[in-house]
Automatic annotation (TrEMBL):
Residues 194-328, 364-539 form the Hydantoinase A/oxoprolinase domain. It comes from the Bacteria. InterPro entries: ATPase_NBD, Hydant_A_N, Hydantoinase_A, Oxoprolinase-like. Residues 7-173 form the Hydantoinase/oxoprolinase N-terminal domain. This is Hydantoinase/oxoprolinase family protein. GO terms for biological process: glutathione metabolic process. The lineage of its organism: Bacteria, Bacillati, Actinomycetota, Actinomycetes, Kitasatosporales. GO terms for cellular component: cytosol. One of its GO terms (molecular function) is 5-oxoprolinase (ATP-hydrolyzing) activity.
Length: 748
């Protein structure tokens, strides 16, 4: 029997289920299949998952036992909440005296709007003393009689004293109903938010448990021995058992799969990921090599669900063109330049030159693109027709759907009615590379835009530019906002496009914004690739006022143990710890692969290639860039730049891995090399010398350590002693003479 060699990712969408096979060593794509999502099969979506897996393994010639990793992402939880298809929740509130008043108010959760015209199905019962088993049973029976299918137990301060909730769960267990204690879902304070999060989690439990059981048994019957993982909404994966406990973590996991693909396949360290479909573009951020997450809004209220920060714009590859009269053309700042350069995953888009093509004053112009798409309107794209189909084409404006404005431009031609879309314009302007999913015959695309160009009083290139300017403008606004919100280093930001419609948005946006951009390799299946490459992830949060270094290390170790328990290889686990002094929140995020990844890549960058990559990222000439430190896995490059309007010099740094990919950037950093044996003393000195003092208090520097193949990020800790304690924990179990490179940034 061959050793396991294939990683499989399956993305269950609303219409199709996509599956990919990735080589576990090279991480190269081996095969991909698409099957209809089996919503109406007796086994539900599990049937489509197994169908896709069988076809995929046959395509790549792989036996089931050769699968080293298998994970799937699903929109089922998201769809259940959007469609209101959830179980009725029975909430058992616990407390006496003032505590009882707090918990009784939780009955108001039943007034939350689930969908338009439908309230969240929740019934409330109260228990004064959770140790009174008879009273608990009476409350459970009362809730069952009112239609409850699942139970939640909630008590004030249960994150510190969980016994009351645990007693209710134990007393309810004989009734056979799925039961959740609120403190098991999140350990953060805030009774209403914690209970609301637990109640929504419980509402989707029955549906998700049934699906989990079907998928698990089906995969086992298929002969796959690798444990089944499930995509989370924060860009990682979790074990099936963890999904059974917290299915809410799969909500919004669709966009998370795409950004995981950009992070793992495209190796982006600082950038914006744009996943474009036919109707919309999901925009998310990668900062310092990590996806940006925040607590999500669920049912219109805040929650403790940590999910990808994704912002959606109603512009996609199928978005329809809208035209009107008068005014100046949109997008005057969006350029038309297109260049080639070194970049992973195909075409790299250069910085824009020139300005967008606006319509003439007082004439017809493109006023907007979308949000209506050709798919929803039931119209084919004009650019995917034939020249014969477009014979005698005449431009008319229509209302594609009832209630739409009558300003949507379509073609009535020999072959019927066709929509003019972003994809048509991108092909006409040469933005879509050969072999791209959205590529069409450029001659057909230009023919499709000729009637529009005549109406606008310009040529085909000018008309195409107007369309792309109008579509890119709202996307650019969100991208600029996210760059500001997350304080990304604009000099290092790269735009990465994914999804089948990526070529309709990302190239033109990159050309006009002055940012580097590229289309991800295999962009149309970037989501299942992200599922296949995702790491096991767990986040532990605790509110600990005045947290000691022992308490911080305890949270860190809890996160590490959690991912190991879910199947991550212990020696490869990385943990990032953040301490927020304003909220007293200690947060540890642990990630790890289910097997030691001994990558055998076909290409390793030589010293010259790594230097050129670093110089390009630093916006400097190669002869102005120096090697500051080296390990077996990374090379640290730096240069100098004068500060504007200020005295002094900055020392920007880039850390480049053996594949020639920038893994870490710092706008102004100090680099020191030491060994594991000497590191504790050297790091203490570095932290002491780099600590800043000001009105905001004393702040330790942002510290990152290059250790073997890892970059240990300790930048989330602001106090010196906990920072050094975490550094010592990272050095543990390493040889005394192993090299350690410290990247130190003084906080301003």
């Amino acid at each position: 029997m061959n050793s396991p060699r294939v990683r499989v990712g399956i993305d269950v969408g609303g219409t199709f289920t996509d599956a990919v096979a990735v080589d576990a060593s090279t991480l190269g794509l081996l095969g991909q299949v698409k099957v209809p999502t089996s919503h109406h099969h007796e086994d539900g979506v599990a049937h489509g998952i197994v169908d896709a897996l069988d076809r995929l393994l046959a395509q790549v010639g792989c036996a089931p036992e050769e699968v080293a990793f298998l994970a799937h992402g699903t929109t089922q939880a998201t769809n259940a909440l959007l469609e209101g298809d959830v179980a009725t929740v029975g909430l058992v509130g616990i407390g006496t005296g003032p505590g009882a008043a707090l918990t009784r108010r939780l009955a108001a959760l039943g007034r939350l709007q689930l969908t338009p015209g439908k309230r969240f199905p929740l019934h409330y019962a109260h228990v004064d003393d959770p140790s009174d088993a008879a009273r608990v049973r009476a409350a459970v029976e009362e809730l069952r009689g009112r239609g409850a299918e699942v139970l939640v137990a909630s008590e004030p301060f249960s994150v510190d004293l969980a016994e009351g909730e645990q007693e209710v769960v134990a007393a309810a267990r004989p009734y056979g109903m799925p039961t959740t204690a609120a403190h098991e879902i999140t350990s953060l304070y805030g009774l209403h938010k914690r209970t609301r999060t637990a109640a929504v989690n419980a509402a989707i439990l029955p549906k998700m448990l049934a699906t989990a059981d079907l998928v698990d048994s089906s995969i086992t019957k298929a002969g796959v021995t690798a444990p089944l993982m499930v995509m989370r909404c924060d860009g990682g994966v979790m074990s099936l058992d963890e999904m059974r406990r917290r299915p809410l973590l799969t909500v919004l996991s669709g966009p998370a799969a795409g950004v995981a693909g950009a992070l793992m396949q495209e190796r982006v360290s600082e950038g914006v990921f744009l996943e474009t479909g036919g109707t919309s573009t999901d925009i998310s951020v990668i900062r310092r090599g990590k996806v940006a997450v925040r607590h999500a809004t669920v049912l219109g209220k805040g929650s403790y669900l940590s999910a990808l920060d994704v912002r959606t714009v109603g512009v996609g590859g199928g978005s329809m063109v809208r035209i009107g009269s008068g005014g100046k053309g949109v997008g005057a700042g969006l350029g038309k330049g297109l260049g080639k350069g070194p970049g992973k995953g195909g075409l790299t888009l250069g910085k824009g030159v020139g300005k967008g093509s606006g319509g003439g004053s007082g004439g017809r112009r493109v006023t907007a693109v979308g949000p209506r798409s050709a798919h929803i309107a039931g119209l084919p794209y004009a650019c995917f027709a034939t020249l014969e189909d477009l014979r005698d084409a005449r431009l008319v404006t229509v209302s594609p759907m009832e209630g739409d404005p009558p300003d949507h431009a379509v073609l009535d031609a020999a072959g019927g009615r066709y929509a003019l879309t972003m994809t048509c314009a991108a092909n006409a302007l040469g933005r879509v590379r050969e072999g791209d999913f959205a590529r069409c015959d450029p001659a057909v695309a230009r023919a499709a835009l000729e009637p529009l160009a005549a109406e606008l009083g310009t040529d085909v290139a000018g008309a195409a530019a107007q369309v792309l300017d109008a579509g890119a403008a709202p996307v650019r606004e969100v991208v600029d906002t996210m760059i500001r919100d997350y304080r990304l280093d604009r000099d290092a930001v790269v735009l990465v496009g994914g999804g089948g419609g990526a070529a309709a948005v990302t190239p033109h946006l990159a050309a006009g914004s002055g940012l580097e951009g590229r289309i991800a390799e295999h962009a149309e299946v970037i989501s299942p690739i992200g599922v296949a490459l995702a790491l096991v992830r767990e986040q532990i949060e605790r509110i600990i006022p005045g947290a000691t270094q022992e308490q911080i290390l305890g949270v860190r170790n809890e996160a590490e143990s959690a991912v190991v328990a879910q199947g991550a290889e212990a020696s490869g686990v990385e943990v990032e710890v953040t301490v927020d002094p304003q909220t007293s929140t200690v947060r540890a995020v642990a990630t790890g692969a289910t097997e030691l990844r001994t990558q055998d890549r076909a290409h390793r960058a030589d010293a010259g290639e790594r230097l050129r990559t670093a110089a390009a990222s630093l916006k400097a000439e190669p002869d102005a860039v120096r090697v500051l430190a080296e390990t077996d896995a990374h090379t640290v490059y730096g240069t100098e730049s004068r500060r504007r309007f200020l005295r002094g010099t900055r020392h920007p740094v880039r850390v480049v891995d053996a594949d020639g990919v920038v893994r870490l950037h710092a706008p102004d950093a100090r680099i020191e090399t030491t060994t594991v044996a000497q590191a504790p003393e050297q790091l203490a000195r570095l932290v002491r010398e780099s600590t800043s003092y000001g009105d905001g208090g004393v702040r330790a520097p942002a510290l990152r350590l290059l250790l073997g193949s890892r970059i240990a990020d300790l930048s989330g800790v602001l106090e010196a002693q906990p920072l050094l304690a975490l550094a010592r924990s990272e050095l543990r179990a390493r040889h005394a003479d192993d090299p350690v490179v410290a990247v130190v940034e003084v906080r301003t």
